[in-house]
What does this fold into?
Amino acid sequence: MAWRFKRFGLRLGVLALGAGLAAGIAVRTSSAQHPAPPQPDAVRAGVPATIAKATRQDVPIYATGIGNVTAYESVLIRARVDGTLMSVPVTEGQDVKQGDLIAVIDPRPYQAVLDQAKAKKQQDEAALANARLDLVRFRTLGQQDFASRQQIDTQQALVNQDIASIGGDVAAIEAARLNVDYCFIKSPVDGRVGIRLVDPGNLVQAAAGTTIISIMQIHPISATFTLPQDELVGVQTDMRRGKLPVLAYAGDDHTELDQGTLLTPDNTIDTTTGTIKLKATFSNPQDKLWPGLFINAHLQIGTAHDAVTVPPDAIQHGPDGLYVYVVGANSTVSRQPINAGYQTAQLAIVTKGLNGGEEVVVSGQSRLQAGTRVAVR
It folds into this structure.
C-alpha cells in the first residue's frame, strides 16, 4: 500500500514538472512573439524643434496699401506749329535737363513771316516819322493862320494811326518769333526721354495733337496708394508732428525698393470703396521705381515702444485662442496662452502672456504637447 502511494506521488511530481516546463516554454514563446516596445530615441533625446527668444524692442507700426508708381512730372512733347519734323536730337532713354533741345520742326516758313513782320514795322516807322514832320509843319502854319485847325487835327490823327500800326507790327513780330521758337522744342523739365513716336521727315500738325516723344521725371519719383478711410484721422494727426516715412516694396511684399516720405492725402474719399488715396515721393537713386510699377506701400503711422515680440511662426491657433510653446527647465515645453497685436512677416507683438526673454518654439510644434522634451536644432 505504501508503495502505491509513493508511486502515485511520483506520478504527480512528474505531472507537475511537465506542467511547469510547458508553462515556461509557453511564457518564453509568448515573450518572443510579443517583445516589449523599446523606448524611441526621439523620446529620450527630445523632439527636434527650432526655438527663438521673445525680445523687447521698439516696433514701427505700418499701414499697408497697394499702389502704383507715377512720374513726378510727365510731359508729352507735341507740335505747336505745323511743319516737317526735321530732327529729334535726343536718343531714346536719354536723361535730359530742362531747356535741352528735343525736336526741330522746319522753321523756314515761320522765319519768312518774321522777316516780313519786321519789314512792315520798318515801313510803318518811316511813315510815322514823315507824319510827325508834317504835323510840325501844319502847327507852324496854323500859328500864322496858313493852316486850319481841321488840317492840324487830321494830321495828328494820322500820326496816332501810324503809332498804332507800329504797335500792331510789334505784336506781329512777337507772334512770328514765337512760332519760330515753337519750331525748336525744348524740354520743360528734367527727366528721361521715352520711345520716339514720330520719326524725322514726317509732317506734324498742331491740331492733330500727335505726341512726338515723352519725358518723365523719375528723380524724384512719386507713388500713389490707398488706405482704408479709418486710417485718415491717424495719418493727419501724425503729419502734424512731422514727415511720415513710406517704404515701397515689390509685389512679393518682401523686397524693399526705396524709402520716401508722404506728400499728402487726396482731398476726397472714394465713396465706392471707402478708401483714401495718398501720394508719396521717393528719391529713387537706383531707378528701382519705374512709372506704372505696382508696389506695396508701407506708411509708418506710429511706434510700439518696448514691445514683446516673437517670430510669427511661433504663434499657434487653438480652440481657446492663441498660444505658444515655451521651453522651460530640462528642455520641456509648456503651452502658454497669449494675445497678439500688430504683426509683420518678420515679427509679431505679444500684448499679453509673455514678458520677454522666454524661449519659444518656432518650428516642430505638430509633435509637441505640454511636458514634451525638445532637442534644439
